[in-house]
C-alpha cells in the first residue's frame, strides 16, 4: 500500500518522476531504491544527465521523510534545505538510486522537532549505483515545515 501511494506521488504529483521513467524497485526496512532508464535521462554525450541523477537522488531521499510524515499522520511541507553533489563517474546505461533509512533515533528526533518547533530536519545520503559502483552521491538535508492551522 505504501509503495503504491509513494509511486503515485513520485510519478503523478511530481510529473518529473514520470518523465524520467522513475520506478520504485525496492521499498523496505532498509530504505528505497529507484530504477531509471537511460533514454529519458540522457545528455549529449550519451550518458546520464547530471541533472537527472541529481533529481533522482533528491527524490529518493525526499521519499523517506515523506513516508515518516505519512506514517505519523502529520501534514507538513517537505523541502530540500541544502545539498552537496559529487559525480564520480559517467553512467552509460540504466541506473539505480538508493537511500537508506537513517537510525530510528534520528527519525524520531525529526518528528519531535517538527511537532514541538514547527520544523524538523533529516540528513540523508542517497547515491547512484551503476555497474555495482557508486557513480554519484548526494549529501542532503530535508526539512519538514508544519502547515499553519490558523484560519
Question: Please, could you describe this protein's structure?
Answer:
With 151 residues, the chain is an alpha+beta fold. It has a single domain, classed as Thiol Ester Dehydrase, Chain A (Roll). Helices cover 36% and strands 35% of the residues. The protein has four helices and seven strands; from the N terminus they run H-H-E-E-H-E-E-H-E-E-E. Strands 1, 2, 3, 4, 5, 6 and 7 form a seven-stranded antiparallel sheet that branches. The longest helix has 23 residues. It is globular and about 50 Å long. 29% of the residues are buried.
List keywords for this structure.
seven-stranded antiparallel β-sheet, Thiol Ester Dehydrase, Chain A, 4 helices, 35% strand, alpha+beta, 151 residues
Structure, briefly:
The protein is α+β, with helices and mostly antiparallel strands and 151 residues long. It contains four helices and seven strands; from the N terminus they run H-H-E-E-H-E-E-H-E-E-E.
Number of helices: 4
Shape: globular
Could you give a short account of the major beta sheet? 7 strands, antiparallel
CATH architecture: Roll
CATH superfamily: Hotdog Thioesterase
Give the helix/strand layout:
Elements: H1 2-13, H2 15-19, E1 23-27, E2 31-36, H3 50-72, E3 76-87, E4 95-100, H4 104-117, E5 119-124, E6 127-130, E7 133-146
Antiparallel strand pairs: 1-2, 2-4, 3-7, 4-6, 5-7, 6-7
Amino acid at each position: 500500500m505504501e509503495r503504491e501511494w509513494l509511486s503515485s506521488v513520485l510519478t503523478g504529483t511530481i510529473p518529473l518522476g514520470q518523465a524520467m521513467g522513475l520506478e520504485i524497485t525496492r521499498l523496505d526496512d532498509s530504505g528505497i531504491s529507484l530504477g531509471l532508464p537511460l533514454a529519458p535521462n540522457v545528455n549529449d554525450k550519451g550518458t546520464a544527465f547530471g541533472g537527472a541523477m541529481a533529481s533522482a537522488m533528491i527524490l529518493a531521499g525526499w521519499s523517506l521523510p515523506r513516508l515518516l510524515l505519512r506514517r505519523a499522520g502529520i501534514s507538513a511541507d517537505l523541502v530540500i534545505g541544502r545539498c552537496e553533489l559529487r559525480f564520480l563517474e559517467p553512467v552509460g546505461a540504466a541506473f539505480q538510486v538508493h537511500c537508506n533509512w537513517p537510525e530510528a533515533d534520528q527519525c524520531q528526533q525529526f518528528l519531535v522537532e517538527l511537532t514541538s518547533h514547527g520544523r524538523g530536519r533529516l540528513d540523508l545520503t542517497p547515491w547512484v549505483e551503476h555497474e555495482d559502483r557508486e557513480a554519484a552521491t548526494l549529501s542532503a538535508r530535508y526539512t519538514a515545515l508544519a502547515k499553519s492551522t490558523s484560519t
